[in-house]
Amino acid sequence: MLWTAAAARAQFTCSTNADNTLTILAYAGPGGVVSIPASIGGLAVADIGTNAFAGSSLAAAAIPNGVKNIEDFAFSQCAQLTNAVLPPSLINIASGAFHACTNLAGIQIPAGVTNIGDLAFTYCSSLSSLAIPGSVGRVGQAAFQACANLTNITLAAGIGSLADDAFLGCSSLVHVGIPGSVTNIGQSVFQGCANLQTAHIGAGVPMIGTEMFASCASLRAIVIGDSVTNIGAYAFAGAGLGKVTIPASVAGIESGAFSGTRLANVAISASVTSIGPNAFCICSNLAGITVASSNLFYGSVGGVLFDASQSTLIQYPAGLNAGGIYAIPGSVINIGPSAFAGCGLANIRIPSGVNNIDEDAFHECSGLGILFFEGNAPATEPASFETGTGTVIYYLPGAAGWSSPFGGLAALLWNPAIQTGSADFGASGGQFGFDITGTAGIKVAVQASANLASPAWLPLGTAALAGGLYHFSEPLLTNSAGRFYRLSPP
Length: 490
Hints:
mainly beta, 6-stranded mixed β-sheet, 0% helix, elongated
């Protein structure tokens, strides 16, 4: 039944509930400071109804004790609202209840509240401090999203669930502690909290959610409780994290979990049974990944992450051996997704057994000059070779499946040969020299040794065969018993 009480006829429109209490449906009074009456016409006010005060010019609202529910969007878009007093009787703050109250600077959530609904305080950009009591079972989806001035939150023990985007984009937030009572964590809970510096995940929390701390560029330290068993996809992607201890409880590290972070080293314990693609890719400071020797699923050699059989190269750390050469072990047959993404290597040598190269394997390898293949052309994905530079593929005579371009890169037959029968071979004018011929443009390293029985090959230089020809020469060694030369990949 709809009715208008005589004393409040000009202000409140209400409906009577089944228990003979009232729900306020609309407010037509003046703006400014409003005290909502505890009763109207002798009936207690129990609920603030959907959209009841939405868009009004309230500056402050005092909600009386006895009110249990603030329903959907009840105070939504009250742009002048600076303060709302919530009663100890309150149980439910429904979806969008204070959505876009952009001047709401303070709110105290009573200890009896059990639910904070989706979008409840979204875009409350003046809200600076917040304490959520342990009585709250669920903090809803995007409940505090884009509260840009929120610098401090306290999450009390007892909270059970943090839904998707709960604090997404709270760009002033500095620290967060998640109590062990939280057993359900949605996606992107703290994503884009650009000034978040530290986080503590309490013992009892079972997982770190998908994109939970993604793009938290200022995040420097995090404590992960030893109850966490899974780190979700892109959980820390793009975060400023420089150091992390992954507890022995963790079994799964999902795709992109630490991609784009500032980690310098990573230690994988024996308990880890699953590592998703791209988990540590484009970490420019990452110099090494170590795996516990007792791990049955993964291993590391020289700081590089492999599967246990070393048949798949999973991750070459982007900060390892910048400007150098890396020879992939001969046991490898597969190069995984983003395996070398962001690396600073100049030259990678790929053994003959490699028959597959996954998506983005060499993505953004800005200094990579040469990919030297010792075997047949592998199976590839469309973006396997998007290095972003002028990388060139070399392949050997007799290898099958090659063409140029290959995967978008120039592919050159690497076939240099010393021309011992040419007129330029031998000693002349105090120099010893010879011509090297081969595919135009390929690079070749010249090495020498005085003893073939136990050779120690000395690098003499690297040259490009412009037009398919290069003449090498060096001063004639008159006090040497002899010198042997060979050509090798650059």
